[in-house]
Aldehyde dehydrogenase ([Mycobacterium] fortunisiensis), 478 residues
Amino acid sequence: MRELDDIYIGGRWIPAASDDRISVISPSTEEVVALVPAADADDVAGAVDAARHAFDHGPWPRMSPAERATVMAALHDELTRRADELAHTIGTENGTPAMLLRPAQVDNGLHVLNYYTELAAGWQQERRIDGVYGPAIVRNEPVGTVAAILPWNVPFYLAMLKVAPALAAGCTVVLKAAPETPLNAYLLAEAADAAGLPPGVLNILAAGPESSELLISNPGIDKIAFTGSTKVGERIAALAAPKFKRLTLELGGKSAAVVLDDADLNTTMAALIGATMTMSGQFCVAQSRILVQEKHYDEAVSLFAGIAGTLPVGRTFDEGTFVGPLISQRQRERVLDYIEIAEREGATLAAGGTRPENLDKGWFVSPTVFRDVKNDMRIAQEEVFGPVVAFIPYHDTDEAIAIANDSAFGLHGTVWTSNVQRGVEIGRQIRTGTFSVNSLTLEPAAPFGGVKQSGIGREMGYEGLAAYLEPKTITVPA
């Protein structure tokens, strides 16, 4: 077991102000694997002060974007050297199966960092326009100090969605790691230090909800970037409102996969296994509602349930594991409660629904499939965040679109068809922030985010950089 005493503030490793420690528990074994400092009010204040000083007086915001890109490239190199260690660490912390660790947890984050590094290298901070009344200079300035608040499910990737564009813009950052997964953030701090990031540009600590609220409310913070539940997002928005702090909130989802009548069912159901059961369904864009036309419904459910029932469930580093544990005992009980609710409301269990009998340690739930689901059931309307899928029948494409849109959420969606253009037309009618045809793809060069209760703002793409910029207009004489 590792025991850590320091936190990374102002470019230095310093002892935490509090003696309180966070126990990092492996969800595969239920064993404590590390103790790390739990940041208290003094630690949070120190981190914000360091970020504020670095922004107001340090070199980072005053560098050209190309100069910042050089340092970001060095950070990418340092993180690449640590990629295998990052992967192993994240697997230990959150239970992601080994086969998914590099591609899903680490490499995706490196791709995002590389994208923003290249964007910064060629980005012009100012442009001159010929206005209606005369010329003007439009200048994009960094928004200021950023509180980046992370969840536990894909911590490094989601850190890069916030840290990379913030650095490219010239902002300084206080990164608050989730208490379940703080260890990979320590590796990020080591890489930032080795890459030569100026002191105070990136400050990293781990903390629970109380210290997180202190970070959000601190007057030295200009912007909050958060990924997590809609309920917590509401609280963050309320805390940020009095000071009109800028917000990027990527929140919950209840995404629908629309399987059209011309889709190859064997191929589609196999692909949807990955779009639903990856990381035990603990990802925000999971296609947890699968909509199938009535005449193909029984066949589709049978195919999917048959595959789900044979998926290898096991610990992170067991050979062949595809479905790992849930993050905590509390989350496992929550998922099991939803399974009971679905059965009480009339849904029929087609696969799973229980804890695996062969795993006496770890927080596991077998891949679970429900049929005979109506879209007004809780299993179809609320985010379960587990390996649970609801199959919903539809009559025609108009009804499928209506069902997909009948949700408080609007984060992602997919359509499955042999006619790509037909799929694009369906995508245009479904109200989500992102959408995929015949895949579940999040493109780093294109904006990602949600509508309705799935959040506000966008990450990735140029829009992700713009979220960390404040446009300024300077009019000049003709």
